[in-house]
TrEMBL record:
InterPro entries: Cell-binding_unc_protein (IPR052732), Kinase-like_dom_sf (IPR011009), P-loop_NTPase (IPR027417), Therm_gnt_kin (IPR006001)
Keywords: ATP-binding, Kinase, Nucleotide-binding, Transferase
Name used for this protein in its record: gluconokinase
Taxonomic placement: Bacteria, Bacillati, Cyanobacteriota, Cyanophyceae, Coleofasciculales
GO biological process, one term: carbohydrate metabolic process
Family the UniProt entry places it in: Belongs to the gluconokinase GntK/GntV family.
Species this protein is from: Limnofasciculus baicalensis BBK-W-15
């Protein structure tokens, strides 16, 4: 990019002598449609562009100062090591001064610079992002959301009219790109999906609002706004400039991360993040609104990428790349509106048979929702997943409640187009018959995966198990084996048997 297209302030900020501290040369400059970020070595400085997109207004110096301070206020709790201060920039003649004492002509957010290699987006591009890290991210976001505040005012942003309005704005802002980055068909069908959702799911959205799922969230939780630094995952750069983008359903945040991973071609990593988040929070019902927000997040990435096409500071080469990227996002937003047929897979087998391992692997392959009975049970009891349950957690009554809830969620999600994997022993004919009957009533395909292994293997697995939500121990195996009821002749046609001591992955049929 030619520096001649940059504002004079940014040109000077590219010079080492601008800063009152040592810098690493050359100074790097990153930009989005709303800001410039100067990377100097130890510190990074963000300058907000004087733009007004309607949903964002940085057009006056007073607004830019206000939102710089908001950025610090909102991000310091999550990333205190990154967000440091707001500095005034003054001017003497043709020279700008960082931290000057005269009247400010601009403001900068000062941050501690972390290596770009620690961004999850960079780690992804270098093939370094793992499923384990995505599971850790799921836990981090779940913990973040548990602390996010809400209030009557914040909840008011969960009203259908307000959600509809700020999604509608995205369509308005992209009309000029129809026929270019997106097709007329994609535009019309994507918009029709969200219009239909608001018309048909008003009660669901009201329930989300009334049950305190509308909170002060991050609002822009994609991989470029998450880093792995100082051995911990840190969320940064949350939305400071628009309350409707921040006062949102927690699933809005979750959808951004899932969408970003899927847009990069790694649905398996998105699935690892999503299933971990859901298990930590117990918010499986929130999946009902996920398609709306997945489509919205893909569309908003398409929108903001399209804005680069109108920016004189962006090169022709970068604009061509932006056009292609925007088209991919518009297509993804459209694809999210195509609801598939749901189904249910029952896991079955004794403790230690490998049910959860198989279910987890299958979930990654199918993009399925993995529901573990151990987690469902503890959520019903209102207890932390990592806490060992007392005997009262495993009474016959509590076990029945757990299976009832597991099946209720399975039917709910399958009816919404998800594949739901119900991970439990399902060792009783009555429990299996109930699931089969409900699936037939709702015309939902159902199959059973029965995991098995020699008793000594089961025992060794349970003895070596640590840090798992399950409380099962090796001394329970004999009673479990004695109580297990065989599959009936009618069930046999639904059952696939997996010996988990063998190469079971090659035996795992996707259509099972």
């Amino acid at each position: 990019m030619s520096q001649t297209t940059l504002p004079p302030l940014i040109e000077q900020m590219m010079e080492p002598g601008f800063y009152p501290h040592p810098v690493t040369e050359p100074i790097q400059m990153l930009q989005t449609h709303i800001s410039y970020v100067l990377l100097t070595g130890d510190f990074a400085y963000k300058i907000k562009k004087p733009v007004n997109f309607g949903f964002l207004d940085f057009s006056t110096i007073a607004q830019r100062e206000h939102f710089c301070h908001e950025e610090i206020r909102l991000n310091q709790p999550n990333a205190p090591e990154i967000y440091l201060d707001v500095l005034a920039i003054t001017q003497e003649g043709n020279r700008f001064i960082l931290g000057g004492t005269s009247e400010a002509v601009e403001y900068a957010v000062k941050m501690c610079q972390f290596p770009q290699s620690s961004l999850l987006s960079t780690m992804f591009e270098e093939g370094m992002l793992t499923e384990v890290q995505m599971e850790e991210l799921g836990k981090t976001v779940a913990h973040f959301h548990s602390k996010c505040k809400t209030s009557d005012y914040i909840r008011s942003f969960g009203e259908v009219a307000k959600i509809r309005e700020f999604i509608k704005d995205n369509y308005q802002h992209t009309l000029k790109y129809i026929g270019g980055s997106q097709t007329q068909e994609q535009y019309e069908e994507t918009k029709a999906f969200s219009d239909r959702f608001f018309a048909e799911q008003a009660e669901l959205l009201a329930q989300r609002r009334d049950n305190n799922f509308i909170r002060e969230c991050h609002g822009d939780l994609h991989l470029r706004n998450i880093c792995l630094w100082h051995n911990k995952i840190q969320l940064f750069d949350c939305i400071e400039f628009n309350e409707p983008f921040r006062f949102v359903d927690v699933m809005y945040d979750v959808a951004f991360t899932v969408m970003d991973l899927e847009a990069r071609g790694r649905k398996d990593l998105g699935n690892a993040f999503l299933n971990t988040y859901l298990e930590q929070t117990g918010d499986w019902s929130g999946l009902q609104v996920l398609p709306l927000y997945l489509s919205r997040q893909a569309y908003v990435r398409a929108k903001v990428t399209s804005f680069l096409l109108d920016d004189s500071a962006v090169s022709a080469e970068a604009k061509q790349e932006a056009s292609t990227t925007a088209a991919n996002y518009y297509r993804l937003a459209w694809n999210y509106t195509k609801i598939e047929r749901g189904r249910i897979i029952l896991m079955s087998g004794l403790s230690g048979a490998g049910k959860s391992t198989v279910a987890r692997k299958l979930a990654r392959k199918l993009g399925a929702i993995h529901l573990r009975s151990d987690a469902v049970r503890k959520h019903l009891a209102g207890m932390p997943l990592e806490e060992k349950g007392e005997d009262t957690l495993y009474t016959a009554e509590m076990t029945q409640k757990t299976y009832n809830r597991l099946l209720e969620l399975g039917i709910l999600l399958a009816n919404q187009g998800f594949t739901a994997i119900l991970d439990a022993k399902y060792d009783k004919q009555g429990l299996r018959e109930s699931a089969i009957a409900q699936a037939q009533t709702h015309q939902i395909p159902l199959s059973i995966l029965y995991c098995t292994a020699p008793m000594d293997v089961l025992r060794d697995r349970l003895l070596s198990r640590t840090g798992d939500v399950s409380d099962a121990t090796a001394d329970l195996l004999a009673s479990q084996e004695a109580a297990a009821e065989p599959f009936t002749e009618e069930e046999q046609s639904l059952v696939t048997i997996l010996d988990t001591t063998q190469d079971w992955e090659s035996e795992l049929v996707v259509g099972c």
